[in-house]
What we know:
By secondary structure, chain A is α+β, with helices and mostly antiparallel strands. Chain A is about 50% helix and about 20% strand. A 3-stranded antiparallel beta sheet of chain B has the order 1-3-2. In chain B, a hairpin with a 2-residue loop joins strand 2 and strand 3.
Amino acid sequence: MKDRKRRIEVFSFFNHTTISEHLEKMAQKGWMIEKVTNFGWIYRRIEPQKVHFAVSYYPKASEFDPYPTQEQEMFYDFCEHTGWKLASSSAQLQIFYNERENPTPIETEPKLELAAIHASAKKNFIPAYVVLMVLGLLQGLMFISSFLGDPIDLFSSPSWFFSGFCWFLVGILCVVELGSYFIWYKRAKVVADEQGELLKVPNTSPFQKIVLGAVLLSALYWVINLIILGDRLERWIAVLFCIYLPVLFISVNGVKKFLKNKKASRRLNRNLTIIASFVISFALIGIITFGTIFAGNHGLFAEKGEEVYEHGGMKWVAYQDELPLTVEDLLDIESDDYIKERRGDESFLLGEFVFSQYPRFDSSDFVDLPRLEYTVVDVKADFLYEMCKERLIYEKEYLLPLEKREYRPQDAENWGANEVYRLYDPEYGARDDYLLCYDNLLVEISFDWEITAEQMQTVGEKLGNL
Amino acid sequence: MARAKFQTLTEQMFYTLLCLQEECYGMDILDRIPNMTGGRVKIGSGTLYTLLEQFLEAEMIKETKVEGRRRSYILTPKGREMLFNEYERIKAQMADFEAIFIEGEEK
Lengths: 466, 107
């Protein structure tokens, strides 16, 4: 039977009542809090018993202190005198337990207790959450604007969707936490002044758990997408990202702990830990970036059997991907110098693929061989179809507003499509750029020539049934 | 600032200062107040710790002995004045009460 267990606890910093109640329940189940760490709360097995818990706030404490100061020890002595023994502490948060039947509470003056909570909150909780809130809201705004403005990029990239969604949630979480704290603090000040009581703290734990659950679900969505639909490079980046954050977190915590063990002063520890977090973070990003570029240049991400050739002092992959529509399908051309490349992102909701057929850079026919490039948006979630179509039209018509181009509807029959739009330019007239709308597919395709009805049918047969 | 902060004293502030009319270890105040008031007033350890710190800062008390973590304190003239002011305030309250309920009923 395990004597210790670690739990991830989700409490607001200032929610002393819910923390105390939770720890009392844990003691009744036979688990006594032993340590509050950044990697979860550690409990040790005890005989199930009824114990009182109290969470107190000591504003002068710091997570960088090598040991409690003499003043802090004096505070502990005072508490012990009334039966309150220190169970664990984490920076300003001090957890005490008391085995006496009706102990005098540690805090008996609500105004002083509230002042201690606020002074402690100002040291860590408020600044940290404000920074996170700003970052979260900025990223969250980008996420929302992508959702509304560029759903193709957002939904086709599981990584962008995952990170954007998580930051959005972090932003919301911080707004809720800071908002509920300040509302509570403002009201609690009035209540403490007028009624001499400490107002009950709002419990946001259920909301925090929902956010945590949503983050885990989106992480699961991201991982499963990458396993099933990702390519080697995407998986490589995902693995590095999964390693990066824990390594950064563990190493920065390791530096802090090491300095604490070495009895470094609070100031020295804090400064060195901040420097270490920047240095380790940049070093890891540097290693990941250069490692990925180096590995890419050495063909590590090339699929098996891909030919790599050298041109202009660089290595290039001679992709021979399967393309749904080729130059050969439309024109009477045969050449071994073609590279056929399929790029794109895909998720369970949407896929965006760019298919390119172009000559090798070292081909003698590089200039003469016609090229073909088209983008296929595979809309798997119906609710995204209209948004994606509008985005594609917007990109052509409004992204370059001075050119005043517009998509005009065409007869879709030859293409076998539901709708077809052709791009018109006020200066050059009709262009050979088309947007083809099939049931779940949107295709943007450009030709170097005026396409014939027969070629339209070929395109429709090849792309319309993907 | 300090004066404004302690313009009126709460019961716990009042009895803490009263205990320090003679030299006393901080921790002993935790027992003295309930003994002095027959258990009517109790002071929490955290509250007492904070009060002593604030009284020291406001120069209402001073440290007399520092034996490691064990420290004793005594009231300063300023603290004494505050305590007397509070006493006068309570007396005035009593007088007002008596004027209405006791003397008023006698008339």
